[in-house]
Design brief:
Distance between the termini: 41 Å
CATH architecture of the largest domain: Roll
Number of domains: 3
Strand order of the largest sheet: 1-2-4-3
Oligomer: single chain
Helix content: 40-55%
Radius of gyration: 21 Å
CATH class of the largest domain: Alpha Beta
Number of strands: 8
Largest sheet: 4 strands, antiparallel
CATH topology of the largest domain: Endonuclease I-creI
Shape: elongated
C-alpha cells in the first residue's frame, strides 16, 4: 500500500513523460502499481468526472447500498478480466431460472457505474451481465490472478464500512450468487407411524474460506444463527433466523 502523497508524486512524474522504470526507482513504487494508476486515475470518457475510488481523495461508490449487493454477487459469481487498452470487463453470471435476479444484478451495476453501458450475454442456461470500465479494479480490489478460493480474499477498510452499514444487502448478494432457500423434508416415527416434516432452510456454498467467513460474520452482525454443514456449506435453519432471512433476503425469483 502507498500513501496518497507518494501516489500523487508518482502520477505527477509520469505526467512529465518519465518512464515507468525511472519513476519506480525514484519513488519506490512498483511498475505494476504505476501502470495501474495511469489507467485508473483518468476521468470517465466524455464526462470529465473522475472515478470516486481513485480520484485525489477516494470516496465511496455513489450508491453504497447497491454496491453492497453487487459486492456479494461479485464475490460469488463475478469475475474481472482485462479487455484492451487498460479497460476491464466485469461479468456476473446468473442462472436463466431467476429473471428477477438478472434484473437486480443489472440495476446494481448501473448504480455502481451510471456512466457505463451494461449488457447481457446469453450463454447455455445462463446470462453474463457485463459492463466494461477502466475502473472495475478500483471498485473490486479483490480482483487478481487465479480463482478466488485459491488466493486470500479480504475487504478493504472502505468496503468493510459499507458492509457494516448495509449487511443485509451484502448477505442478499451472496445468497443470490452462491446460496439458496430450500424446503427440507424429513420423516420421523410418531407413535410408531412415520410422519413427514417440512421446514425451510437457507444454504450458502462457497469453496473460499475467506468468503465464507465474510458471510458468517455478516450473519452474526444481524443476529442470524447458522451452522457449518461441512467445510464449504453454511446452513441457516433455526425458525427465527429463517424468518429474518425471509424478511430481508428471500428466495431467488
Amino acid at each position: 500500500m502507498y500513501d496518497m502523497k507518494t501516489r500523487e508524486r508518482a502520477i505527477a512524474l509520469l505526467g512529465q513523460g518519465r518512464s515507468l522504470n525511472s519513476v519506480s526507482k525514484e519513488t519506490g513504487v512498483s511498475r505494476a502499481a504505476l501502470r495501474s494508476w495511469q489507467t485508473r486515475i483518468e476521468p470517465l470518457k466524455g464526462t470529465g468526472k473522475p472515478c470516486p475510488r481513485c480520484q485525489g481523495a477516494p470516496g465511496p461508490p455513489e450508491n453504497p447500498r447497491a454496491y453492497a449487493y453487487l459486492l456479494g454477487l461479485y464475490l460469488g459469481d463475478g469475475c474481472i478480466n482485462a479487455h484492451h487498452r487498460g479497460v476491464y470487463c466485469l461479468r456476473i453470471v446468473c442462472d436463466n431460472a431467476w429473471p428477477g435476479l438478472i434484473d437486480a444484478c443489472e440495476a446494481s451495476i448501473r448504480s455502481a457505474r451510471p456512466d457505463n453501458s451494461v449488457f447481457r450475454v446469453k450463454k447455455d442456461g445462463c446470462v453474463a451481465v457485463t459492463a466494461t470500465s477502466k475502473h472495475w479494479p478500483c471498485f473490486f480490489p479483490q480482483h487478481g490472478p487465479g480463482k478466488k478460493h485459491e488466493r486470500p480474499i479480504a475487504l478493504e477498510t472502505w468496503q468493510q464500512e459499507i458492509v457494516a452499514v448495509h449487511p443485509w444487502e451484502f448477505i442478499r448478494g451472496l445468497i443470490h450468487s452462491d446460496g439458496c432457500r430450500i424446503t427440507n423434508r424429513t420423516t420421523r416415527l410418531v407413535k410408531g407411524e412415520p410422519k413427514l416434516y417440512e421446514y425451510p432452510r437457507y444454504f450458502f456454498t462457497n469453496s473460499s474460506g475467506d468468503i465464507t467467513r465474510l458471510f458468517t460474520e455478516s450473519l452474526d452482525r444481524v443476529g442470524v444463527e447458522w451452522k457449518r454443514a461441512n467445510w464449504r456449506n453454511i446452513s441457516v435453519a433455526r425458525r427465527a433466523s429463517v424468518v429474518l432471512m425471509d424478511t430481508h433476503v428471500g428466495p431467488k425469483y
